[in-house]
Amino acid sequence: MRWFHDVVVTVLALLSLGGVAQAQGTNPAATKAHLAISLVAVTSAPAAGSSVTVALASVPAPGWHGYWQNPGDAGFPAKLDWTLPKGVTASAPAYPVPGRLIVADLMNYVFEKPYAPLVTLKIRAGLAVGTALPVRLKTNYLVCSAEVCVPESAELAIDLVVGDGAITPEARARFDAWRRAVPKPLDARGTFQATGGKIRIAVPYPAGATLGQAYFYPVTTGLIDYAAPQSVTQDRDRLVIETKASANGASTGALEGVLQIGAQQGLVVTAAPGLVAASAALSNPVSGGVLSATLIAFAGAMLGGLILNIMPCVFPILSLKALSLARGHLDERAARQEALAYAAGVIAVCVALGGIILGLRAGGTAVGWAFQLQDSRAIVVLLLLTVALALNLSGLFEFPTPAFVNRSGGASGAFATGALAAFIATPCTGPFMGAALGAALVLPWPAALAVFAGLGLGLALPFLALGFVPALRRRLPKPGLWMETFRRILAIPMWLTAIALAWVLGHEAGVNGMAIGLLVAFVLAVLLWVGGVRQAKGLAIGPVVTVLLLATVIASALLIAGRRPDSVAAVATVPGGAEPFSEARLATLHKAGRPVFVYFTADWCLTCKVNEKAAIETDATRKAFADHKVAVLIGDWTNGDPVMGRFIEAHNRAGVPLYLYYAPGSAEPRVLPQVLTSAMLAGL
Known about the structure:
Strand content: 15-25%
Helix content: 40-55%
Structural class: alpha+beta
Shape: elongated
Largest sheet: 8 strands, mixed
Number of domains: 4
Radius of gyration: 33 Å
């Protein structure tokens, strides 16, 4: 049926074009044209060296329609033949968002109501005022009804004169209305993937932006089956369009099109070939589906938070809080109050960070868990905190009441301890955490905040158990001098954490930034030593605390100026045989049939670094990858690259680590666990 329709349209065009052209004149109204076109300029006196917009104001007769720049399965777009004075050039026409019309199973992109393609004429500079600019246009076009198509043509003219460029209010209002119907260019590029007879297009689109009547009109021909239904889903800060691919389509070049986002509203989209993950958005979810997804994510987040307690930056704080219960001889009520206050501090910080993440993502920013560690100012604050805690554990000084970690009996101190533990734990993403937080980002915001609260509950669970189960407290060692020795031993992992943060600071802010951070940490240590001496004499250290706060502010201000100097390259350092990640490189390798292992890491991610040393960068893994010709791509997310962030989010993860394996010929990657072994990678 399609071939017959195409042949009929073509034959009619060839046989009738000449005769109809003879019948058309410069006055469309006098020719009884089925599509009347007028040439209208926004001003008849454009200034020299400026641009003037000209509209092809088109009015279809009732029951007839004109065609868009890509007519769809049949028809052809208008052909424009300009005759312009010297020094004047014309742009390609900018069409408004079209409509859709299916005739005999053929999709047509048409205009059934008045419309106006806009053309920009550029006027050469230096033309004298009063210079005549005769503009002539001959256009051939096809106009159809539901039963018949008729080729028509028109010869249009408009006379401009170089002047002051004045525009009347009436003309401005008329052209403003036409411009609103023309799609706006989208700055960010999309990605498309054609495989298995389907094509999937990912378009960057802020999660909080309004969306209605979404539909993708391809300008590029031969890739999309126009008549096939389209599925458009909002997946966080991107739209994913899925439809049937054209049987003879090739996906080597870019795909251009218009994404309709509302009535007479659209975006001009350019998408490059690549790999597009399926949408994880919940399309029209029923309440039970959201509830079950929330419960599963909540459980995963709570289990992941529980595992965070063994991390070197959290374990010392938890240990001292646990021992404080044994040393403080608290009654049941006081122990429960302290446990609840600790849990409240942990959960409050986790929910607050989750709320900030959701808010930033709603504004179109690609951020995930531990996003604050992509800012060197946050790194220096953490560095100073860990140094202070390490010096406290070493016995150099005592925090003034309310205590953070070394005293019991104060709800405010317990709350602050919990908040501190949660904040310091943010560089870590353990097992179960990544999938749970990734799921949270596609849930409604109340459910998402509940998942972040589950993470905090898991982190606080051990201390809650000690506070509410007397039998567990009775199993704690009895107080004694050994506790002071144990406390100093706990300073070791805190010092190691401080060293790791200094290393991350150097990667983010350069050697100068790291030197500033270490200098401020040294000043901090001296001030705390002075404070400890005053404490030993029974004196207050309030002024010292004030100075410490000022030192933190000064360090942050210095790092603002020194962040990412020119000497610091923003390119990932990759081991031999691997390459930095890019979607284009991934698409090239995948298209060539190579198996590809992609992993996303960050300098501040402890789990990432452990996996790299224990599983990825081992001789056994290297040999297995070399034997099977597995290409390795590394995505360094230390500084929060937004393009990389969107790719991570597209695979339902809220941050790093993320490990993907693309088998040859597979449309979707295999998402590997967040804790790897060398044997697991060798068996891919």
